[in-house]
Amino acid sequence: YNCLAFHYNLGEEVVPTYIDMENNASFRKEVLVNVGGFNPLIFYGEGAELTYRIFNRYGGHDQFVYHPHAVVYHDYANHWKKLIRKNWTGAKSQVVLETMYPDFWKFITSYHPLPQGPIPHYKNFKERIQLALLRRLARITRALGVFWFRKIKAA
């Protein structure tokens, strides 16, 4: 399932990006303190939300970077149920962040589109088909979740 997490590998170059891997990010202490640290109300996307608040306070779009040599080993999902749950939770957080910051997604997409590469060829045919179907199921889950949580918010 880790090969479905394209946002974990943005290539071999240092590139500006929002913080998406909170477990492998560094901040100056005074910056983190001045913006109030991580928001305890955000469970999924907390690094992106923190990036947004730091940027709004200090500017510096290019000050947040992905570095290909900073490596962390992390399982994106170890079961299809966890993959679906992550996408449902992500949908809920997306709606919360849209409510808190109406221009949040415009800020996030100002960096780069997330890579959407093919399923790795080292997988056998059956595994590649399964992973491709899971990727589609995850996207559908996310879209349905966003629709659902927006509908609840509007009610």
What characteristics describe this protein?
155 residues, single chain, 5 helices, mainly alpha
Summarize the structure.
The chain is mostly helical. The protein is built from 5 helices and 2 strands. It has a two-stranded antiparallel sheet with strand order 1-2.
How would you describe this protein?
The protein has a two-stranded antiparallel sheet with strand order 1-2. The chain has 155 residues and is an all-alpha fold. The protein has helices at 29-34, 46-58, 80-100, 104-109, 125-154, and strands at 15-16, 65-66.
Count of extended strands: 2
Largest sheet: 2 strands, antiparallel
Q: Span between N and C termini? A: 35 Å
Radius of gyration: 17 Å
Class by alpha and beta content: mainly alpha
Helix content: 40-55%
Low-pLDDT stretches are none
Q: Tell me, briefly, the overall form.
A: globular
Order of helices and strands: EHHEHHH
Average pLDDT reading: 83
By DSSP (H or I, 4+ residues per run), the number of helices equals 5
Strand content: under 5%
Question: How are the strands ordered across the major sheet?
Answer: 1-2
